[in-house]
Specification:
heterodimer, A: alpha+beta, Beta Polymerase, domain 2, five-stranded mixed beta sheet, two-stranded parallel ribbon, 3 helices, 18% helix, elongated, disordered N terminus, B: mainly alpha, Cytochrome-c3 Hydrogenase, chain B, 2 domains, three-stranded antiparallel beta sheet, 19 helices, 10% strand
Chain lengths: 186, 461
């Protein structure tokens, strides 16, 4: 296994990282690298501003939002983490933006105005982690049923063993589930 | 589960908040009025039924629910279509009917078991899912699969790409009335699935790509079979083209339908054949080569019109390019192992391909059961506890038949993935539906939707 070396960001990213530090100063909390990928941790308040600059500045030109995903780190105070995976077709480089919010105040500004593709991704993160994206045009659950309770991808949400409620139907957890002409619980 | 109490306006899917303000207001009042309105559709002359409907409401807007069980929605996609006569006013996709929680389940299984989950997402391109996931695990581990394994992955991915495009061609043909194309497409796909079965043991859900290698080498005689297939397939593609490319009905149904501009494609994050049909020659196999794609000589087909016909042209051309790659892989197939030598990473079981599709390796069983206690312990630990992956997070991508398939994988250093998030291209590409459908006719929805080539197993995960 090769030893873990300090990651050198790709050359094409250098002006972007310099520009980010100069323009946004304190809003850029940390710039890190791992396995050749560069991650920029941001203050959530500056997210849209930074995103717009990254999209429009010719040195960056991150026109393509590849992916937007959530992760839950329960041991942190700001446990909900949202990653924005950006790709620039012009420079053929990738960059990851990272923002963190707390469960008590799980609010982030939407980036649908910057990259319209964020629409469904943000709905997915809302669905699974309960992060509210302020200004989102249609923030409703996307993969879970509309009336689902809880946020299944949080780490304290169990895998299985939960009641399944639909409108007009109730299915008990698998371990207590019995079928007697209809679903009942033991 | 305590939920923070935040007031928010909940809007149901299908309510089209992105309509202009006036239209949205009109829309809501219409919906309210429609809720009061009961029209008995008990038969009779259609003209009378529609006349009655018109008499009761002062508008001719109609909301039609298409799916989730509808033969031309490519699975369990639901479309809420609003029509004025035959013209589409809005079309909102509703997804989630096939959600199985694969990403969550993967957090409770070992790294190697993750392969068997991800292969079930986009069921028409399982090899791509497996490869993208394994590339992510390998990147976290800081290792690479041996050259022969890389080449075999490319071989199977390209076979899989042809199979996937064939299903696209077959189903699109069927939906637009070209029944023979459906029969031919599935006939040739069957041959590919047979080849995949011969190599991996299964027709679908192969779990054949493993972190740092592949599970089995090619069986004897498969190379010739693949070569023969690649040779025959060229003629078959010519046949499809004689049936469709200049067919006036096909042209009528596909040209100018579902147009998307380059700005729309980029903004909506659309990748794959749809992007290339808009004239952008972007292909991750060229832009960020993986598995040694840089060694192979192939073109990135593009078209300019960005309509259903252009997407058809791109996919047909891509099948030909895939055949080129398949032949080059076979010509330059390196020798050597198909799994990394490092015993702390490699899967210990040396499965041979038996008549049951799997079978055992008598030599390996003899070794662990009869000769070496340490080998038995090692085998047991590797299978039950699995490999440990250093902490970190990566995002890896492959060019699947539908576009950029990305895996965001997070490890906390343990033997289970901390988080596996999949950027499925179908999920992203489906967002084009409301944009593409505006102003089309009802019948064109089928053609336009089909040109996205969504696989709902991947969308809903």
């Amino acid at each position: 296994m090769p030893p873990e070396t300090a990651t050198q960001p790709p050359d094409a990213l250098q002006p972007v990282l310099t520009g980010l530090r100069e323009r946004f100063g304190d809003a850029v909390r940390e710039i890190g690298g791992h396995r050749g990928e560069v991650t920029v941790e941001l203050d959530p308040a500056s997210l849209v501003e930074v995103a717009t600059w990254l999209r429009d500045d010719p040195a960056a030109a991150f026109g393509h939002l590849s992916d937007l995903s959530g992760t839950d780190y329960p041991e942190r105070p700001d446990r909900l983490c949202v990653d924005y995976h950006l790709y620039s077709r012009e420079h053929n480089v990738r960059l990851r933006l990272k923002v963190r919010v707390t469960v008590a105040e799980p609010r982030l500004p939407t980036v649908t105005g910057v990259w319209p593709t964020a629409n469904w991704h943000e709905r997915e993160v809302y669905d699974f982690f309960g992060v509210r994206f302020d200004g989102h045009p249609n923030l409703v659950r996307i993969l879970m049923p509309e009336d689902w309770k809880g946020y299944p991808h949080r780490k304290d949400y169990p895998l299985g063993g939960v009641d399944v409620d639909y409108i007009g139907a109730h299915v008990p957890p698998p371990d207590t589930r019995r079928y007697k002409g209809g679903w009942t619980s033991t | 589960m305590s939920e923070p109490n935040i007031d928010e306006a909940v809007v149901r899917p299908g309510e089209a908040l992105d309509l202009p303000e006036r239209a949205a207001a009109e829309h809501v009042t219409l919906n309210e009025r429609r809720a009061q309105q009961v029209i008995a559709m008990g038969g009779g002359d259609w003209a009378e039924v529609t006349a009655r409907a018109h008499a009761e409401g002062d508008d001719d807007l109609m909301v039609i629910n298409m799916g989730p069980q509808h033969p031309s929605t490519h699975g369990v996609l639901r479309l809420v279509v609003e029509l004025r006569g035959e013209a589409v006013i809005s079309c909102q996709p509703v997804v989630g009917y096939l959600h199985t929680g694969i990403e969550k389940s993967a957090e409770y299984r070992t790294w190697v078991q993750g392969v068997t989950f991800v292969t079930r997402m986009d069921y028409l391109s399982p090899i791509f899912n497996e490869t993208a996931y394994c590339l992510a695990v390998e990147k976290l581990l800081g290792v690479e699969a041996p050259p022969r394994a890389q080449a075999l992955r490319v071989l199977l991915m390209e076979l899989n790409r042809v199979a996937s495009h064939l299903v696209w061609l077959a189903t699109t043909g069927l939906e637009l009335g070209a029944l023979s194309v459906m029969l031919y497409g599935f006939r040739e796909r069957e041959e590919i699935l047979d080849i995949l079965e011969e190599i991996t043991g299964l027709r679908m859900n192969h779990a054949w790509v493993r972190p740092a290698g592949v599970s089995q080498d090619l069986p004897d005689g498969t190379e010739e079979r693949v070569r023969r297939f690649a040779g025959d397939m060229r003629g078959k593609i010519d046949e499809y083209e004689t049936l469709l490319t200049r067919n006036p009905i096909w042209l009528e149904r596909t040209r100018g339908i579902g147009h998307l501009s380059v700005d729309q494609l980029t903004g909506l994050g659309i990748t794959g054949p749809m992007l290339r049909a808009g004239g952008v020659a972007h292909d991750l196999r060229k832009a960020e080569p993986y598995c040694g794609y840089e060694q192979y000589d192939f073109e990135v087909p593009t078209a300019t019109d960005s309509d259903v016909y252009a997407r058809y042209q791109v996919r047909i051309a891509e099948m030909r390019e895939s055949l080129k790659i398949i032949e080059q892989v076979l010509d330059a197939l390196p020798d050597g192992p198909v799994m990394i030598a490092d015993p702390k990473i490699a899967w210990p079981a040396r499965l041979a391909l038996g008549p049951d599709g799997l079978g055992n390796s008598p030599a390996h069983v003899q070794h662990i059961m009869g000769e070496s206690m340490e080998a038995l312990i090692h085998h047991f630990k590797m299978v039950t506890e699995g490999i440990k992956v250093p902490a970190g997070e990566v995002y890896t991508t492959v060019e699947s038949p539908r576009g950029e398939l990305g895996y965001h994988v997070v490890s906390d250093g343990g033997n289970l993935p901390y988080r596996v998030h999949v950027r499925d291209p179908s999920f992203v590409n489906l967002q084009a539906v409301p944009v593409m459908m505006n102003g089309l006719l009802m019948a064109d929805i089928i053609a336009a939707l089909s040109s996205i080539d969504p696989v709902l197993g991947g969308v809903d995960r």
